[in-house]
Amino acid sequence: MKLTSIENIHCPELEIYNKFKKHAFLSDNSFLADSPKVVNFLLETNLQIKSILATQEYYDQNTALIKSKNIETLYVTDKKEMEKIVGHSLHHNCMMHGIRPDETPLTELDNHILMLDAISSTENVGSLSRSAAALGVNSLLVPSNGPHPYGRRSLRVSMGYVNRLKLHVYDDIMVTIQKLKDMNYKIFAAEITENSIPLMNVEVPEKWVLLMGHEGDGISKEILAICDEVVHIEMQDGIKSFNVAVAASLLMYQFKHKEVLLGTKMALSL
Q1: Rounded distance, CA 148 to CA 131, Å?
Q2: Alpha-carbon distances of 269 from 39, 101, 262, 264, rounded to whole Å
Q3: What whole-number distance in Å separates Cα of residue 73 and Cα of residue 52?
Q4: In what order do the strands lie in the sheet with 166-170?
Q5: d(C-alpha 86, C-alpha 80), whole Å
Q6: How many CA atoms lie within 13 A of 191 on its CB side?
Q7: Is the per-residue pLDDT at 29 higher than 80?
Q8: Average pLDDT for 43-54
Q9: pLDDT at 264
Q10: Which domains does the chain have, with CATH numbers?
């Protein structure tokens, strides 16, 4: 394992670790990951890794894992110098520069899809990605004008589990929803309206899309109008809403649970 000592923290090769706080991605679809747990998880995937910036301690503890990957450059330095390179204080001892995986075409997504509309928080995108992976909703649709699941903070919150999802980035939500409907998906919008259906009463089809809206504004009337059903989670009086990531987790769990029950009933009827 060949480690590269840093002689000049301002060299062009290290700019990626500083500029990512201002620029989400570069032309080569780069991403930045930090913290040993996230970095190590991603090292166990088939992602292309360009470099690692870490302390000697990190390399000593993870030698076998790092040797198993074909990584172009392994930068070694101390934590204080890492903070100078990054431009802020760190609570960990490693960072990684990788290349995002190719997007999955819309036509190749699974039968169950989590779709995000105008989610503004990168942390919420990370939490939504992690919950989807945990609950077996293995396809994720995100807008091109919102936080990307491979953004540094989002990736950290998801613990890297977004890598287990089929990811597609869309440009026009109205067009995309119509394409999904043409492919026989039923579109469920998570929102509280006069005609929304309580979650306990929802009938879950074989192919479905769960659409989650903006944390404060929710889903617009125009978008709600083209969805097949609007569903809400039953709550105590006086409570207006859940956090979007919590709400999506409850909805996805119930949708998957209802699917299992439906499959059991169909098997018993045969």
Answers
A1: 16
A2: 48, 43, 11, 9
A3: 7
A4: 166-170, 139-143, 112-116, 208-212, 186-190, 229-232, 197-198
A5: 10
A6: 26
A7: yes
A8: 95
A9: 45
A10: 4-99 (3.30.1330.30), 106-269 (3.40.1280.10)
CA contacts within 13 A on the Cβ side of 8: 5
DSSP-assigned beta bridge partners for residue 198: 232
Integer Cα distance of 235 and 242 in angstroms:
9
Residues whose CB falls within 8 Å of the CB of residue 24, separated by 6 or more in sequence, listed in order: 148, 151
Whose CA is closest to 112, among 266, 264, 265, 262? 262
Mean of the per-residue pLDDT values for the chain?
91
Is the pLDDT assigned to residue 151 strictly greater than 70? yes
The whole-angstrom separation of Cα 109 and Cα 106 is: 6
Question: Higher pLDDT residue, 113 or 242?
Answer: 113
pLDDT value at position 259? 64
User: Is the model more confident about 25 or about 97?
Assistant: 97
User: Maximum distance among all alpha carbons in the chain?
Assistant: 71
Q: How far apart are CA 112 and CA 56, in angstroms?
A: 43
In three-state form (DSSP H/G/I as H, E/B as E, the rest C), the secondary structure along 175-200 is HHHHHHHHCCCEEEEECCCCCCEEHH
pLDDT on residue 20? 67
The region that residue 136 occupies, defined by phi over 0 for left and psi between -120 and 50 for alpha, beta otherwise, is left
Whole-angstrom distance between the N-terminal and C-terminal Cα of the chain? 59
Residue that the structure tokens 């840093």 belong to = 6
pLDDT tens readout for residues 90-144: 889 999 999 999 999 999 999 999 999 999 999 999 999 999 999 999 999 999 9
